[in-house]
């Protein structure tokens, strides 16, 4: 990660903490703590000389997450939904060249594009949602 990008996200986190404080939200202390930890940590994902991960990170590695890719969406009345059958076409609201949305546990994390990997579909991540946007989605 570039230093300026890291600094921008850190500043956004600190501003979010201040905003939460002003609105009386319970999360202001948590956001401040996270901002301080980010300042203090050179690289929280550094592997020790023995090749071991930090214990606090190791606890999280086996937590299952649901990753889903959203191709697009459309709203339709129930009567149109009931008329769908094999071969029906449903036009989505997205353009063909719009990036796909990548969600982790129903929270937007990134954008990407479809790729072929041998005979399977895959997704190439093209952009990660900023820390500021991710924090706003928590509210």
From TrEMBL:
<comment type="similarity">
    <text>Belongs to the FliN/MopA/SpaO family.</text>
</comment>
<keyword id="KW-0145">Chemotaxis</keyword>
<keyword id="KW-0283">Flagellar rotation</keyword>
<dbReference type="GO" id="GO:0009425">
    <property type="term" value="C:bacterial-type flagellum basal body"/>
</dbReference>
<keyword id="KW-0966">Cell projection</keyword>
<dbReference type="GO" id="GO:0005886">
    <property type="term" value="C:plasma membrane"/>
</dbReference>
<dbReference type="Pfam" id="PF01052">
    <property type="entry name" value="FliMN_C"/>
</dbReference>
<dbReference type="GO" id="GO:0003774">
    <property type="term" value="F:cytoskeletal motor activity"/>
</dbReference>
<feature type="domain" description="Flagellar motor switch protein FliN-like C-terminal">
    <location>
        <begin position="59"/>
        <end position="129"/>
    </location>
</feature>
<keyword id="KW-0969">Cilium</keyword>
<dbReference type="GO" id="GO:0071973">
    <property type="term" value="P:bacterial-type flagellum-dependent cell motility"/>
</dbReference>
<feature type="region of interest" description="Disordered">
    <location>
        <begin position="1"/>
        <end position="30"/>
    </location>
</feature>
<dbReference type="InterPro" id="IPR012826">
    <property type="entry name" value="FliN"/>
</dbReference>
<feature type="compositionally biased region" description="Acidic residues">
    <location>
        <begin position="19"/>
        <end position="28"/>
    </location>
</feature>
<dbReference type="GO" id="GO:0006935">
    <property type="term" value="P:chemotaxis"/>
</dbReference>
<protein>
    <recommendedName>
        <fullName>Flagellar motor switch protein FliN</fullName>
    </recommendedName>
</protein>
<dbReference type="InterPro" id="IPR051469">
    <property type="entry name" value="FliN/MopA/SpaO"/>
</dbReference>
<feature type="compositionally biased region" description="Acidic residues">
    <location>
        <begin position="1"/>
        <end position="12"/>
    </location>
</feature>
<keyword id="KW-0472">Membrane</keyword>
<dbReference type="InterPro" id="IPR001543">
    <property type="entry name" value="FliN-like_C"/>
</dbReference>
<keyword id="KW-0282">Flagellum</keyword>
<dbReference type="InterPro" id="IPR001172">
    <property type="entry name" value="FliN_T3SS_HrcQb"/>
</dbReference>
<keyword id="KW-1003">Cell membrane</keyword>
<dbReference type="InterPro" id="IPR036429">
    <property type="entry name" value="SpoA-like_sf"/>
</dbReference>
């Amino acid at each position: 990660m570039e230093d300026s990008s890291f600094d921008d996200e850190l500043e956004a986190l600190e501003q979010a903490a201040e905003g939460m404080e002003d609105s009386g939200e319970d999360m202001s202390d948590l956001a401040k703590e996270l901002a301080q930890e980010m300042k203090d940590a050179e690289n929280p994902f550094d592997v020790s000389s023995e090749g071991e991960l930090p214990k606090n990170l190791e606890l999280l590695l086996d937590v299952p997450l649901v990753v889903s890719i959203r191709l697009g969406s459309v709203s339709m009345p129930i009567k149109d939904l009931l008329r769908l059958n094999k071969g029906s076409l449903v036009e989505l609201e997205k353009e063909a060249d719009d990036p796909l949305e990548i969600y982790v546990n129903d929270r937007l994390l990134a954008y990407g594009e479809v790729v072929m990997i041998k005979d399977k579909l895959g997704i190439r991540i093209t952009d990660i949602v900023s820390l500021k946007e991710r924090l706003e989605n928590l509210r």
